[in-house]
Design brief:
Helix Hairpins; Arc Repressor Mutant, subunit A; mainly alpha; about 150 residues; 2 domains
Length: about 150
């Protein structure tokens, strides 16, 4: 299997993983491809050709990824087409938002526990979930603070 074929298969696996995280499949392909392409910037037309996707799908997903802060758009004087690249430093922001969302579930479980305070049978399932999110709320912030600095 050639390197390009292997790389294409990797981009597909990358996209499939992030589809489960809520990123559209083509958006995941764009992210995966932009993480490993050389040169690091691509136009929408180049992405369309490389990923064998329609220009409309590429355009829609680039807007989504730019709005999410994972991809940056750059225009240059004298050049008509914008160029896109992954903003690898913003991935920490994505992970932080996911951690915050996990921890914030505790607020929901706590309010549910108050509602079920007089009904221990019904509260048992909620208490089990609350214990998990309580543990996450205690453990994730210190773990996140110990994350390594990105490579230079």
């Amino acid at each position: 299997m050639s390197r390009e074929t292997s790389l294409s298969a990797w981009v597909e696996r990358f996209a499939a993983h992030f589809a489960e995280e809520g990123i559209p499949l083509i958006g995941g392909r764009i992210l995966g491809y932009l993480l490993v392409c050389d040169p690091t910037e691509r136009t929408a037309a180049e992405l369309s050709q490389e990923l064998e996707a329609s220009s409309g799908s590429i355009s829609t997903n680039l807007k989504f990824l730019v709005n999410a802060g994972l991809v940056t758009k750059r225009t240059r004087r004298g050049r008509q087409a914008a160029q896109y690249r992954v903003d690898e430093k913003r991935w920490a922001d994505l992970v932080q938002r996911k951690l915050d969302a996990l921890v914030s579930v505790r607020t929901l479980t706590e309010s549910g526990m108050r509602l079920m305070s007089g009904d221990p049978q019904r509260a048992h399932r909620l208490r089990t979930v609350d214990q998990l999110y309580t543990w996450l709320a205690d453990e994730l912030p210190p773990l996140w603070e110990r994350r390594p600095n990105p490579p230079k």
